[in-house]
Amino acid sequence: MQFTINRSAFIKALNYVNRAISSRASMPILTHIKMVVEETGITLTGSDTDISIETTIEKTDDSANLQIQEIGAIALPATFFTNIVKRLPGEEMTLTQTTGFQAKINSGSAEFDINGQDANNYPHLPEITIKNQLILPADTLVEVIRQTIDSVSKQLSQPILTGVHFVLASGNLTAVATDRHRLAQRTLNFGESDVEADIVVPGDSLKQLVGMLEEVETVEIRVAENQIIFQLGANTLFYSRLLEGNYPDASRLIPTEKRTTLTINARELAQTIDRAALLSHEGRSNVIQFSISANSSMISSNSPEVGKVEEEIFAAETAGDEITISFNPDYMKDALRTFGDTEIQIGFKTPLDPFTLVPTNNAMNFIYLITPVRTY
């Protein structure tokens, strides 16, 4: 095996597949990148069994300036190999498979010899039967993921909640995530379609996917029995396993009654909560209070061992009953970050019931729910 390639193009492909490489891999060879060189191009594969990423650099890609002298295959240690390629001095590099499963890398005045493994020992990507497929704008899918991913549970004792629940039906996609303390739900209409699916995608998979979506315009989503595949452009496939189990019915958790509402700019409120959190984080209980009345609204935190903070907030509008409610400021900051610099309405029922945040212009059909903290 031997080829010469533009180093920048090769690094981009390596960065893609490295997203699927784990230092805690169950098999030693999964700490490697599989590289297959054919007459038409080079295919790189990375996997940790939960996520697999395959990307191809085609010989016809002018930016890669790929020249193939000899075909072949090898698996090279992912981190070591990538670090070498990133530090090579020249604009181009040549990789040659030498004796057995060794590779020689040349660029400029630098030369490296590294040991690899037999590519035939690398697990094959799953062969799956596609049930449904859907094409979405990449930036839309990024928005949906970022609005829900913070609410995914980190408790492995409830594995089904460590993913985002996607339901595709009647031309709508609904994404829901909850850790039982908060919930985020986004509904998206993608037009007339007979695509139907009810799946839970691991949050860790979606975090890796987001970084890759920013470089493509559209993404093709394919759903199989226990896998989901995202095709990014013409040359990259992202595989993820699906979580097994029944996701809780989110619609039962969302309150329908609001006795108090407050309308305010999300970014301004986030800045106020960020200041109050400086004190709550120093205290034993990470809690902030929200007091709302017709005359004024206050954010406060009181930690006897640290001190006290109070700040008036200037809402665009308040309506309904007076209320004082306690909550985790970190959950609130995560929620407000998903809204950006937009006006939102916060709806309260009682001090012990979950409260909701929605954009005042809720064309995107997005709702965030937070469970208050009981302080007595």
Distance between the termini: 70 Å
Give the fraction of residues assigned to helices.
Answer: 10-25%
Overall radius of gyration: 25 Å
Major β-sheet strand ordering: 14-11-12-13-26-25-24-18-22
Which CATH-level-2 architecture of the largest domain? Answer: Roll
Question: Would you report the number of β strands?
Answer: 26
Number of domains: 3
* Tally of alpha and pi helices: 6
Identify the overall geometry.
Answer: elongated
CATH superfamily of the largest domain: DNA Polymerase III, subunit A, domain 2
Helix/strand class: alpha+beta
Uncertain stretches of 5 or more adjacent residues = none
Whole-number mean pLDDT: 93
What CATH first level of the largest domain would be assigned?
Alpha Beta
- What is the makeup of the main sheet? 9 strands, antiparallel
Report strand %. 35-45%
Determine the oligomeric state from the structure: single chain
Key structural traits:
376 residues; alpha+beta; DNA Polymerase III, Chain A, domain 2; Proliferating Cell Nuclear Antigen; 3 domains; elongated
Explain what the structure shows.
This is Beta sliding clamp. It is found in: Cytoplasm. Belongs to the beta sliding clamp family. Keywords: Cytoplasm, DNA replication, DNA-binding, DNA-directed DNA polymerase, Nucleotidyltransferase, Transferase. This protein is 19% helix and 42% strand. It is an alpha+beta fold and 376 residues long. It folds into 3 domains: 2-121, DNA Polymerase III, Chain A, domain 2, CATH 3.10.150; 132-252, Roll (DNA Polymerase III, Chain A, domain 2); 260-370, Proliferating Cell Nuclear Antigen, CATH 3.70.10.10. It has a 9-stranded antiparallel beta sheet with strand order 14-11-12-13-26-25-24-18-22. It has an 8-stranded antiparallel beta sheet with strand order 6-2-3-4-17-16-15-10. β25 and β26 (366-370) form a beta hairpin. α1 (7-18) packs antiparallel against α2 (78-87) and α5 (266-280) runs antiparallel to α6 (329-339). It is elongated, with a radius of gyration of 25 Å.
